[in-house]
Amino acid sequence: MELDVLLKVGKNPKTSVREIAEELDSSKDTVHRIIKEHKYHPYIAQKVQHLEDNDHNRRIQLCVNFLNQSQAYSKITWTIFHRWDIKPRTIPRTVDCPHQ
d(Cα 18, Cα 22) in Å, to the nearest integer? Predict the structure, then answer.
C-alpha cells in the first residue's frame, strides 16, 4: 500500500489525497499519513501573483499618470463614492454627475 501511494505521488504530484485514496481503495487518512511520513506535502500547488523587483517604480509611475489626468480622476472618484441606495443629489461632489 505504501509503495503504491508513493508511486502515485511520484507519477503525478498534483494528484489529490482523495483521488489516490479512491484509486487504491483506501482511506484519505491512511494516504495522508503515508504522504506526510515521506515528507511530501498533501496539497496542490497553485500559481499566484507576486511583486517583481521593478513593480515599485511602475506603481509610482501609474500614480503620477493618474494624478496628472485630472478629468479622468474626477470621473473615477465620482464612480467610487457613488452609492446606488442614496439619491445622487444627496452625495457631495465637486463635479457634475455625468449620468444624470
Answer: 6
